[in-house]
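Reply to dn_fold:

You asked what the input looked like. This is it:
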Amino acid sequence: MIRTENLSRDFGAGRGLHGLTMHIPKGRIFGYIGPNGAGKTTTIKLLCSLYKPSAGRAFINGIEVCPENSNRIKKIVGYMPDNFGVYEQMSVWEYLDFFCAAYHIPRRQRESRIRSVLELTRSQQMIDYQVASLSKGMTQRIGMAKTLLHDPEVLILDEPASGLDPYARIEMRKTILRLRDLGKTIMLSSHILPELAGVCDLIGILEKGRMLAFGTVEEVSGTVKENLKITLVFDSDPETAKAVCESFSEVQELHGTGNELHFRFNGLRNKIPDLVHKLCAAEVRIIEIKEEQADLEQVFLSVTHQSA
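and this is what came back:
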């Protein structure tokens, strides 16, 4: 549904987006991760036809994103920026009706369309509220409702949970998942990495305008060096198991009692079978080896070679 081929936008002095190639299938949620200035918003504006690329191409549902296709792209893409304009003197109904007119939605269809998007975003009770009276969380939900008015196939959300309290973030996450269930393809950027891990099918890690990793959270985690928390449960001599683990250079902070050992594995996940093989060769009978899944923040820091 979203495809880029060597997409670039050069702002000079190394700034911008450089050679972005990715493919996001229909009906997936893609989390776009990167520090401030990495190029996330530049990518989004290129996909929304707000910027013209310096090189490369982008496609939305097979339609190339270019000036001559701008109107077609705007019909199938819903874009919610991190800061969007609101008209505080209007009620929520008037605000959404105004944007229905902007989207050229016929007047006879507007009431049903407005009620539909308010229901999708769980905002029905706000229909007569003044926009000036809305909290940050309410404003984000109405912004999402506005983005859905023309029933876009693709949603591009720039920091949708920015500045929200925990309850509002939960509501935003539920809304995003409901939209995926309706078949929408969703691209969202966020600095709240645990939120992305909970909803995204795919992630991309961007730094200094270049994509460093792309795939599922599990796939990306499996390709980076990280401190994995491991628990080993066995039915053998504890001293033998401990000695084997201590001989493995990736094993750190080893401790435990009885038939359990706990340690950090400072290496690639695909090296763990080597440790298992070594334990089996020493006749350590393994009952279970459990890994605590690394969170997305750890993965991000590892891929970008930063430290917490």
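The radius of gyration is 24 Å.
Hope that clears it up.
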